[in-house]
TrEMBL record:
Protein name (Swiss-Prot/TrEMBL): Enoyl-CoA hydratase domain-containing protein 3, mitochondrial
Cited function: May play a role in fatty acid biosynthesis and insulin sensitivity.
Gene Ontology MF, one: hydro-lyase activity
Source organism of this protein record: Mycoplana dimorpha
Single GO BP term: fatty acid metabolic process
Source organism superkingdom: Bacteria
Keywords associated with the record: Fatty acid metabolism, Lipid metabolism, Transit peptide
A Pfam entry, by short name: ECH_1
Cited SUPFAM superfamilies: ClpP/crotonase
Similarity comment: family membership: Belongs to the enoyl-CoA hydratase/isomerase family.
Amino acid sequence: MADVVHLRKEDAAGLVLKERADAVLRLTLRNPPANVLSIALMEALASALDEAAADNSVHVVVLASTGNLFSAGHDLKEMTAHRSDADGGRAFFEKTMRLCADLMLKIASLPKPVIAEIDGLATAAGCQLVATADLAICTDTSTFCTPGVNIGLFCSTPMVAVTRAAHPKQAMEMLLTGETIDASTAKDFGLVNRIVPKQYLRQVVDKYASVIASKSPEAIRIGKAAYRAQAGLPLPEAYDKAVATMVENMLRDDAKEGIGAFLGKRMPEWKAD
């Protein structure tokens, strides 16, 4: 992948920095000091993901952050301020949790892979963001937790993503104890794919993104959707879904080109989106 950045801009509030290099879009959270998922940040990130979904020249999205924390989750000060509302804050709490859930669903359904690049603490909804991403790569000093029980608030929405990424009993360990786990434990639990020294994080993530971006965007799009669809199905239905997907994939132009290139011992030329 070329090192030349073709695009570098931020949203109106400056909460999400967008950088584009070839087919990879990097979205960096910029809400210091803790990159909390405030209403404004979640709306800005959702908007950036919508743009990525609509841009066929984007093949991979990287989610990163600035500072020493990846994300401390929801903005508790913002939420607490609404306890004085007439309804005790119910409407605002519903808005916050629904917006966060919709953001996670947007990542899961995005027709391009999403890689989380973690350097620092990812807690509560920040950990949910990591667990929702398709791949996660972190530094060896990164830490993770779902600490809601420590403040009387079980991490129910982060639970949805964490229980789908980590092993069941280990997910429950995180949710019930609220304790922080280190990068090595997070990898053992299944929350992250790779652990790298801090100075190599960007380099390793860029390499992963570049490799994935070089593949057939059509195959990647079909594959991500099929993976998400079959994951919760009983085994027979999962195979039914996979068989139907493979047949449809075989009929697509990129499959014809890719197989032809393999048999012809040449590099494939993927169709323009």
